[in-house]
């Protein structure tokens, strides 16, 4: 194949992926919310339920999914101060968009993919610094982790342990390179 044609094809694929991917994520979020709301739950106060679109509209200081570490730091700062009730809204969003029948791992993947890009996740390690990657920040030290943990605990009740959540978060971080066709990009091209 002509090299210029190959370059053009790759550029076209990237353009399509960048323009369609956010729309697909929004559709996936809506589907997950519908699944979560359709699941049988204990009676809740409807005034605590917040959807992804309402959350983004109310807390539009940061654009989602978060790409830059500085934006994530800003989100953590807002969560720490509970600006505009963002901490409680985040916990409620996670709680009410968790489809319990899908399992903890799948729900955590879903939450991470809608809040963060794989490029941001690659800057973090789950629980502790490693000698191999000393420049990575620790995710459990962030305020967002507290929201995530509270939301998952409230959704599942006491049936889930902190160690299990940390195990699945570590798996999400380890597999972040495979998000958004990352695995396909690393495979050798067959021609």
Give the termini separation. 9 Å
Mean pLDDT: 81
Radius of gyration: 18 Å
- What class, by secondary structure content? mainly alpha
> What is the N-to-C order of secondary-structure elements (H for helix, E for strand)?
HHHHHHEEHHH
Report the sheet with the most strands, covering strand number, pairing sense and barrel closure.
Answer: 2 strands, parallel
How much of the sequence is in beta strands? under 5%
Specify the overall morphology.
Answer: globular
Number of strands: 2
Helix content: 55-70%
Number of helices: 9
Strand order of the largest sheet: 1-2
Low-pLDDT runs: 40-44
List the helices and strands and how they pair.
Layout: H1 3-38, H2 52-58, H3 69-81, H4 86-96, H5 104-115, H6 118-121, E1 124-125, E2 137-138, H7 143-156, H8 162-174, H9 182-186
Parallel strand pairs: 1-2
Helix pairs in contact: 4-7, 5-8
């Amino acid at each position: 194949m002509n090299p210029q044609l190959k370059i053009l094809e790759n550029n076209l694929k990237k353009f399509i992926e960048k323009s369609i991917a956010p729309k697909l994520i929004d559709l996936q979020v809506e589907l997950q919310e519908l699944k979560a709301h359709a699941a049988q739950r204990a009676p809740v106060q409807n005034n605590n339920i917040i959807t992804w679109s309402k959350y983004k509209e109310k807390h539009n200081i940061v654009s989602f999914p978060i790409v830059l570490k500085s934006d994530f730091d800003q989100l953590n700062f807002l969560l720490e101060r509970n600006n505009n009730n963002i901490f409680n809204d985040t916990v409620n969003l996670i709680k009410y968009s968790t489809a319990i029948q899908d399992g903890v791992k799948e729900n955590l993947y879903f939450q991470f993919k809608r809040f963060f890009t794989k490029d941001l996740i690659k800057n973090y390690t789950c629980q502790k610094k490693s000698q191999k990657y000393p420049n990575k920040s620790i995710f459990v030290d962030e305020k967002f982790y507290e929201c995530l943990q509270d939301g998952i605990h409230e959704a599942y009740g006491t049936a889930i342990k902190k160690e299990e959540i940390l195990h699945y978060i570590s798996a999400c971080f380890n597999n972040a390179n495979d998000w958004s066709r990352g695995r396909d990009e690393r495979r050798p091209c067959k021609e």
